Amino acid sequence: MTFADAKQRFSSRVADYARYRPGYPAALLDLLREECGLRAEHVIADVGSGTGLLSKLFLENGNRVFGVEPNPDMRAAGEEFLAAFSNFLSVDGSAEATSLPGSAVDFITAGQAFHWFDPVAARQEFARILRPEGWGVVVWNERDLDRTAFAREYEDLLVHFGTDYRRVKEAYPGGEDIRSFFLGNKFVARELPNFQEFGFEELAGRLRSSSYAPLPDDPNFAPMMEALGKIFRVHSVKGRVRMEYSTRIYFVRLERA
Q: Mind listing the pLDDT tens digit for each residue in 81-137?
């Protein structure tokens, strides 16, 4: 499945995305050190780096990171968020055309942007920029849909009000998608717990950050926010609700072109 507007879908949602999307658990670094031999001297290409949530983890580990992002608004937000890191280089590029030199990186990482990539062109580009014996790592925060009553009602809200939520949801990657992307190369799958806690304004920002949420000028926006308020009032404890995730990690040693 492809989306013609994939590189621009979040332009009007950058501020909410930067403030309210979940980061990635620090235990991810321990896992990659153990399983992939990640070291501080390795160079990372974080493809579809967006506002910098995944890049930040590697920068804090001491890695040099190329943040490759095609959307100018998202890229600018990432540059601002990561301005304190001298080992971050922001790149105007995409998964299909990163503009990086050949054999430039040891790890290619992709977070939530992975399902927007064109698989054939991105696979070719990854093989071109990767050094021999390099790794591909896909990391995905998957929101729990039915563990709690809050999770179930939030999911129902997205189904009811989302502009194209079902279509986007169908494009979320699973194990078979990763296997297909990497042409059947043997990959390892791991999972880590993750969560966010929100007051109502934060929860509203989390909802607005989604590409399928109606924008404020849409007639469904106000009814959606009213429904969100009802869900929050029913399920909040001391003014907070908890959104649970599973951080899914897939990694594979890639063959260089």
A: 999 999 999 999 999 999 999 999 999 999 988 878 998 999 999 999 999 989 999
The CB density around residue 192, as the number of other CB atoms within 10 Å, is 18
Q: Which CATH superfamily is domain 11-144+173-197+244-253 in?
A: Vaccinia Virus protein VP39 (3.40.50.150)
The Cβ-side half-sphere exposure at 52, using a 13 Å CA radius, reads 24
Which sequence spans correspond to the domains of the chain? 11-144+173-197+244-253
Q: Is residue 244 exposed (0-12), middle (13-18) or buried (19+ Cβ within 10 Å)?
A: middle
Using the 8-state DSSP alphabet, how is residue 101 labeled?
A: P
130-143/105-110 β-pairing: parallel
pTM of the shown model: 0.84
The span from the CA of 157 to the CA of 176, in Å, is 28
